[in-house]
Amino acid sequence: MKAEQRVTRNVARLWQIERDVKTEQDLLNALHPWHGKQNLKFNQQACFLYALSGGLILLFCFLLKIKIGFVIGCILLILAYLNYHSDRGINAVIQALEQKMIQVRYDLAFNHLPSHLPFSTQSLFLFNQLKQHFSTLFSAHSSASYISRFASTNWQINQQDCPVLLFEYVNIIEIKTHDEDGTKISWRKEEHRQWGAFIFKMPALGIAINNTQNTFKAPYQVPWNTSDIQMNEYLYIRGYEDLQLAKNLTPHRVVQFDQFFKQQTGDLIFHYEQDIACFLGLAPLFEMHSQHNDIKTISNLRGHLRTSRLLHYEQFKKQMITLLSSL
């Protein structure tokens, strides 16, 4: 069997594995032992040689005005095209297996809403509703801003299942620019990405906290300062209503918020009526880290998947659960 056919068969087999496996160990076991050639890279040497030879021949023929060489050069370039194999299929199945591993390892359901919501709930409707609940975080952003990726999961907090909706948020910022004369005005768009979570079954504390120096808008405009001057310099705390804020912002909770924001950068709001909290920060929660990134064989792929981790998400989840468990 030709090497290219082996690679194609391996890719087809990997797609079948991606469809069948249910657990992390199932996926790793399906990749070892492999029972066959492990190639996951097309040999493009022949394609490269044909293309190089054809290009050089055409160049010399153009310079020396040799007509017969044009035909030979074109034939070699056609052979290069016919022998080229795109890596798109290989990259696609690797990305699918990466997402599968992340999904089963962290119990993340990508493109699915939390199971406690009505089955008929549409994602666009839900996100619009959630952004209205936390309009102080989202209202100042452009209407072109959007949630590009999301995944639902459940966290165990004080022996209770709390649905969580993780998301990646793309904030489109329009910037006004002028030409050199300062007369012509134009607009350019910049994308700023943030990551966050909507956490359900939370106490309705009516508290908004950040360490980003962003100013909270209504309804979180009741100021709060602690007795710690240094904490006041970097921790911005606002509430919905004076009595509610005094009741809910106990010294113990202030200490817990302080510890959390020493490790995370972002905005955290506990809604004043709904049992939902929202965090929006800078840590890329869906960014994958692995010790094996040069994938040429099935063995390389297994090592890559085995060591792949969402390190930012692991840290965020641990720190957020610690915070929420203490409230």
Summarize the structure.
With 327 residues, the protein is an alpha+beta fold. The chain contains twelve helices and nine strands.
Question: How would you describe this structure in keywords?
Answer:
327 residues, alpha+beta, 12 helices, 9 strands
Q: What Rg is obtained from the alpha carbons, in whole angstroms? A: 27 Å
Secondary structure class reads alpha+beta
Query: What oligomeric state is this?
Result: single chain
How would you state the average pLDDT, rounded? 87
Helix and strand arrangement:
Blueprint: H1 3-20, H2 24-30, H3 45-64, H4 67-83, H5 88-106, E1 109-110, H6 123-133, H7 135-138, E2 146-157, E3 160-178, E4 185-200, E5 207-210, E6 222-224, H8 229-234, E7 236-239, H9 242-248, H10 251-261, E8 266-270, E9 276-281, H11 298-307, H12 311-325
Antiparallel strand pairs: 1-2, 2-3, 3-4, 4-9, 5-7, 5-8, 6-7, 8-9
Task: Explain what this protein looks like in three dimensions.
With 327 residues, the chain is of the alpha+beta class. The chain is 44% helix and 22% strand. A 9-stranded antiparallel β-sheet has the order 1-2-3-4-9-8-5-7-6. Strand 8 (266-270) and strand 9 (276-281) form a beta hairpin. Helix 10 runs antiparallel to helix 12 (311-325). The model has no long low-confidence stretch (mean pLDDT 87).
